[in-house]
Amino acid sequence: GTNGKTTTSGMLAHILKEAGKDVGWMIGGELPSLDTRARFDPCELRVIEADEFISGFADMNPKFFYYAPHAAAITNISHDHHNTFAAPVQYLQLFQEFVNTVPAGRPLVLSDDDPGCKWLYIPPVGIDVRRVGFSPKSDQRITGFKALAEKTRFKFLGANFEINSIGRMNVRNAAIAISLAQSYGVRPQSAARALRSFELPAGRQEVIFKSKAVVAMKDEAYHPVALAELLPALRASYPRRRLVMVFQPRYTGPKNEGFQQRWVEPLSNADLLLMAQPFDVVNWGAEREFSLPQLGRSLRENGVETKKFNDHEPLTRRAIAILRPGDLVLISLGHGQEGVVDELRSRISKAFGS
Question: How far apart are CA 32 and CA 199, in angstroms?
Answer without folding.
Answer: 6
